[in-house]
Every structure is written in structure tokens, then in C-alpha cells.
Input
Amino acid sequence: MNVRTLCLSILYEGESTGYEIRRQCVEGECSYFIEASFGSIYPALAKLEDEKMVTSRTEQQDGKPARKIYSITQAGREEFAEQLAQPLGDDMFRSAFLLFARFAHILPRSLVEARCNEFLQTRVDKLKHIEEAAAKHNCNAADTWVINYGRAIMELAEQHMRTHMHELITLARAEPVKDAAE
Output
């Protein structure tokens, strides 16, 4: 899967502007599927348009710049289905927190505890976001399956942090005791 496939997936559901596609890929529900940067989405859309997988039209707006609206073509729908039929690559999981945790032993305990609590709160917030998205959207069975999978991952991460963060905090170095004369 790549950025062009992700763009096709969004357009498969309906017309969209480049800005809306970018927002879905970077901060919306599609941000959970594959990594898509701001700089990769517009080139992918341009190439898809050159290849006749998508079309675009310009729509004027009062007091605002014109916006370009993209639509998937039949060829784009077929290409999207072909891409989905290809063997899947491995899921990629990257975590800045895991790098931090790997070296918790060289950091002050107060910092490790603060980062653990931040990470835990982020899991709680992401779980809340998943719940809100599920309540807000009219979900079909496939959407519900994906949401439930995401919910399970976030719940497990939250549970693991609540149960084991004390172990990571204990690994951190104790802050030096301040001299009473200071």
C-alpha cells in the first residue's frame, strides 16, 4: 500500500478536495493506515490524474481561492481494487515512546514518570477519539470491524501502561539528592 492507494481509498468514498484528502491522511481516520506526508499527497494526486485514475474540477468560492475537487474514475476504482488484492506488506509500528522507554535507565525518574503519564493520557485520548468517530459516523460492518480493532489496540496499550509503567519508572535513575547546604 502507498499514498496513491490511500488517496484512491478516500476518493472511492466520494469527491474530495486535496486539502480534505491531506487532512484525512495526516490527522483523520486514514492516518492510522499508512504514513502519508503533506509533501507526498499532492504529487500522488497529480500522478493519478495524469494516469486518468482521478479527474478534477475547479470550483469557485466567494471571497476565497478556487478549490480543486477530485473524483475517482472507473479506471481508478479498478486500480484501487487491484491494489487491495496485492499481497500486504508487514504492518509498520514506530513509536518515539518505545525509544524513550528503551533508554529510561539513563533518565531522571521524574521525567520518565511524566512521559509515562503523558503516554497513558494520549492512549486515553486516542481511545476517546475512536469512540467519538464510531458514534459520529454511520458505520457499516467493515467500518465497525476496523474501529473495534483500533479500540482493542488502544485498550491493550492503556491497560499495559497502567499495569506496568511503575516498572519503567523504577528503571530510571533516581535524581541526585540535593545537599542541605545548597
Notes: Strands lie at 16-17, 54-61, 64-72.
